[in-house]
Write a structure and sequence with these properties.
It is a single chain. The radius of gyration is 21 Å and the shape is globular. A hairpin with a 4-residue loop joins strand 2 and strand 3. It is built from ten helices and five strands, in the order E-H-H-E-E-H-H-H-H-E-H-H-H-E-H. The N terminus is likely disordered. Helix content is 37%, strand content 11%. Strands 1-2-3 form a three-stranded mixed β-sheet, covered by helices on one side. The longest helix is centred in the middle third of the chain and has 15 residues.
């Protein structure tokens, strides 16, 4: 199986309080634009009722909002906000759930890059938590020793040292208010108890099924008797759950 590097990119805003509200949700009025909300037009879509021409209803919130590619991840972020955490705490919790439910996109064995706007000091911060490459990864190693003319796509020579967990730790240490014990709780629970195999994830794993079969550990993790679990079935990842629990207890150096 190809061990692709996973990237979890964050674009976050930290406010002074977890539930701070803006008096100008659509922008501060100016002399040139007295009503910023008047410029907002719903995106065209497929809604059949004939009101706004869009396929999905708008999402409006006064106290906080979390947007991810997975409802379970968004829910985890909202739970952190409701518990008093800030945007960074919520983003780490959401990212950790994606590491469980979206193994084709993200994972604690990948890298992490983040852009963080800190309203407290009015500054934008960037985090590069990409993993290091082994010292022996020279051009000669790949071309002469391995006989390759491009990067390896499978095996140990296809991955760098993971940087995701260090990235999560750096974000929490610099900007967060919670630790791994709280922010990783929902992800660990989902990995233990299981989650529903939705269409997109099922199709993604099905598309690389034959590659997964070639690696015993990957097959044991993602397949059942050599086949992708049925659509909408409950899938679990106990080994990943154990890893997340270990990080909860011992932190980034676990």
């Amino acid at each position: 199986m190809r061990h692709a590097l996973s990237v979890f990119a964050l674009a976050l805003t930290i406010t002074g309080a977890a539930h701070a509200q803006s008096e100008h949700a659509f922008g501060v009025p100016t002399d040139e634009l007295s009503d910023p909300s008047a410029t907002i037009v719903a995106a065209p879509g497929s809604r059949a009722q004939g009101w706004q021409g869009q396929g999905r209803s708008e999402v409006l919130a006064r106290h906080g909002m979390v947007a991810t590619s997975d409802p379970l991840a968004a829910q985890a972020g909202l739970e952190i906000l409701q518990a008093g955490g800030n945007a960074i705490d919520a983003a780490v919790a959401a990212g950790a759930v994606l590491d469980v439910t979206s193994p084709n996109d993200t994972g604690i064995g990948g890298d992490l890059f983040a852009l963080v706007w800190n309203a407290a000091d009015g500054r934008l911060y960037a985090l590069n938590s990409g993993g290091w490459s082994p010292a022996g990864w020279t051009l000669e190693y790949f071309t002469k020793d391995l006989g390759l003319d491009s990067m390896a796509r499978t095996g140990v020579n296809a991955v760098t040292v993971p940087g995701a967990v260090s990235g999560y730790d750096a974000l929490l240490s610099r900007f967060g208010t919670m630790g791994f014990d709280k922010t990783f709780e929902r992800a660990a629970s989902i990995a233990e108890e299981g989650w529903g195999q939705a269409e997109r994830r099922h199709a993604d794993i099905e598309s690389v099924r034959d590659k997964i079969r070639k690696d015993a550990d990957s097959a044991a993790t993602f397949l059942v008797n050599g086949e992708v679990p049925p659509l909408y079935s409950i899938v679990r990842n106990p080994d990943l759950a154990s890893a997340l629990r270990l990080i909860q207890r011992e932190g980034r150096d676990a």
